[in-house]
Amino acid sequence: MTADVVPLIMGLLIFISSFISLKVGLSVAIIEVLLGVIAGAFGLKAEPWMIYIGSFGGIVLTFLAGTEIDIDSIKEKLKESFLIGIFSFFISFSGIFLYVYYIANWSYNASLIAGLAVSSTSIAVVYSVLVETKMLKPEIGKILMSATFITNVIGALGLSVLFVKPTMYSFIFIMISIIVIFFASKYSHIIFHNPVLRNKVIEPEIKYIFLILLVFVFFAELSGMYAILPAFILGLFMSKYFSKKSETIILMNRLRTVAYAFITPIFFISGGLKVSLPLLLSCIGIFIILFILKLTTKFTGVFFLSKKYIGVESMYFTLLMSTGLTFDLIVSLFGLNSGFINQSQYSLLVGVAIASAIIPTFIAQKWFFPGAEEDLLI
After folding, report:
1. CB atoms < 10 A from the CB of 139, how many?
2. In terms of Cα–Cα distance, which of 250, 273, 9, 22 is closest to 133?
3. Which of 274, 238, 240 has its CA nearest to residue 44?
């Protein structure tokens, strides 16, 4: 009998990343991605259970991000969030597509995949950073989450329109998502406010949330679509349960604890493991160009609008809007599995995603962090 050493290594990486994060003062998500890249360079491979739990971790983060957005604040800042989200996506998409298609000589479909992947902003990274730096409650955090959501909605719609062929299962997934979101947002108080279920060690409320998200994952896989959008919308509609009553605020804190202790670290570490450093180094020139293009096009699309609507914190806002990871990985994997991009192009796009998750966040936290007042702690 041979023991599997991979779970032990994963546990060690998750544990070490927390200490490094506390020591250097950076988001633990960045450290987990970096350790994943390093572990991958030494031969660690993502096993099927890691891939599934990691994917689920991205869905959980997306749901949590949705619960942090106040619908009233979206209505108040709809113009700002909408404009920033649109320009964030389309300027970046156009710049990346034109470069890889006309200069790098990628195929048309591969160029579309590159444009969709690189132009996204990672909800998971942005949410993780805002939670850890106590910036979710200030206005900048609310607008940032809303703009990130709009950017990714446009990307998800673009992927569906350009590549996903509608089937009966697509219709089933959409209808199931609508039905689940409607009933969960309307009747979840039966679970959350039930004194029989409250504060039990078996955590029935958290299991209820996970069950709903797993329903999305199942029907999304069945249809060839993605559970990110319905998970975020579900969180958005259920935010009313997590902002008013003390017992549901406690529930949210417990849910974060469960997610950040094991599920989401696997998502970030697995993302790092997907990078093939030899393939990435073989096309280092285009990697640097794509990374610089992402930063410059995001700066063009975000900075000036954020300067107008946010003010002195616009550079911090722009840098976090330049992060990538979640949707980048989804689009790149779709392109690889569908034959639109090859393994080298996949490693290149994932490498750019991981670099954009680390470098802009590092710069934002070290030199442009606006700080959070003590009374805004969550």
Report:
1. 14
2. 22
3. 274
- pLDDT value of residue 209: 92
Distance CA 22, CA 28 (A): 8
Question: Which helix (H) or strand (E) segment is 201 a member of?
Answer: none
Q: DSSP letter for 310, please.
A: T
CA distance 239 to 208: 15
Amino acid at 125: V
pLDDT tens digits for range 314-327: 899 999 999 987 77
Give the type of residue at 252.
M
Residue 99 buriedness (CB in 10 A; 0-12 / 13-18 / 19+): buried
* pTM to 2 decimal places: 0.78
Among candidates 217, 213, 194, which has minimal Cα distance to 205? 194
> Is the pLDDT score of 64 beyond 60?
yes
Under DSSP, the state recorded for 167 is: -
pLDDT of residue 52 exceeding 70: yes
The vertex-244 CA angle with 240 and 245, nearest 5°, equals: 115
Kindly state the average pLDDT of the residues 170-177: 92
For the chain, the first-to-last Cα distance in angstroms comes to 47
The model's pLDDT over 70-117, given as tens digits with 9 standing for 90+, comes to: 666 667 777 888 899 999 999 999 999 999 999 999 999 999 999 999
Which H/E stretch holds residue 56?
helix 48-67
